[in-house]
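[Solved] Which block belongs to which protein?

Original post:
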Amino acid sequence: MMYFFSEKQKRQLLINGSGVNPGRDNIPVSLLTLTGTDQKWLINELYQNRPNIALGLFFNKNDFEIGEITLDVISKLKGPNLSSEYKGNLFTTTEISSPIVTFDVAFVGKYPLSIYREVARELGRIETDTSTNLSIWEKYLNRYEVPRNR
């Protein structure tokens, strides 16, 4: 299976999934992205006894939901990737199939996963940049009275 998390992220994900606070609306720890698309997964928990399963926010059947994600399935997603090179006077492009799910090493969650879900439902995509569509973010941050980390 592909490695989607840094060691620090993995430790926090396992703490979140340890059952100490079951059902807690944790702050997401990792952001996975399907390269070349708007598809994203915000990962909240990993389970020690089920290492292939994560809990997070994702798009499913016309809605954004918080639920279980099978990491093996995500790790096997492949898609077209173009490799280009010059050969003499010719420019050639070759299509290759490669893993295209990546994790954002710079991602730092700021708010509970439910906030990201409400914003995603309104925008039609998972968004982590609070500086875009500020009025939508403010509406949900004010409703849930979440302290802002600015």
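(Second protein starts here: sequence line, then its structure tokens.)
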Amino acid sequence: MIIEAQPTFSKILKANFIMAYSRPIIIVINLLGLFYVFQPFIFPSFGTDETFQFIQIVFIGVLLLLPVMIYLRTRKIYISTSVASEKRAYEFTSDKVLITSESFKAEVLWNKIYKIQELREFMLIYTTPYLAYTIPKEAFGDKLDEFRELVKSKPVKQKLRN
């Protein structure tokens, strides 16, 4: 089965935000940050000392900096690396996944894939816990069920929707 996808900046950015904000540590940091932002309005007499205010500033900084850093990193990679914007062909065979574009070719055996995760708009093929090929689900067209069945038959960690 061959799937072709043209990465766009907005799709890559959206996938990067989803991957970053689905990590438990990022969720916890953001919840703490939100608590420290809204705490003065909820408990006005609590936390008026300098240490608490410093912690509050740090968490507010994290809340603001993390999305900015994700945006800037994604933009830099997309603009400076032609590979990031090239149309890709993903060929899924019984023993491996071939990823091809104008300037690169990758071959990954199924047993070397860390995880395949299905999100609402994307399929993520993780080669490591932190690196994933992002394929928009719209690129699969009517082959999405066939892909799910293929993945289910492979020895790979998977989080698929039905």
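Accepted answer:
You had them paired correctly. Confirming on the second one: The chain has four helices and eight strands.
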